[in-house]
Amino acid sequence: MSSHLKNISTIQKLPFSFANRFKLVFSYNQQNEKVLYYVEPLTIEKLVEVHRVIQVRFTLHKLNQKEFDTKLMQIYQKNAFEARRLMEDISLDKNDFFL
Length: 99
Fold this sequence. Notes:
Number of domains: 1
Order of helices and strands: HHEEHEH
Oligomer: single chain
CATH topology: GMP Synthetase, Chain A, domain 3
Radius of gyration: 16 Å
Strand order of the largest sheet: 1-2-3
Distance between the termini: 32 Å
CATH superfamily: Type II secretion system, protein E, N-terminal domain
CATH class: Alpha Beta
Number of helices: 4
């Protein structure tokens, strides 16, 4: 498995409910660096929990609430779209198998 694919699966381990509740979302920036986007206050307890789940190094980037809400929706809508597309592809493959 390539390291990029491993990182993508790692990102998906941060549940939406956790990200939304604690105002933390993990993604990549334009330079393909791992970034934890957050809204203050950022506590050590939150960082420890994120590191426990994600288990990779990352940088921090502070956002205001509006920016965070936009980032959160972008990331999780993209993941939902990709999951839906994968299920559609599997369904098409299954139909081809039975023809």
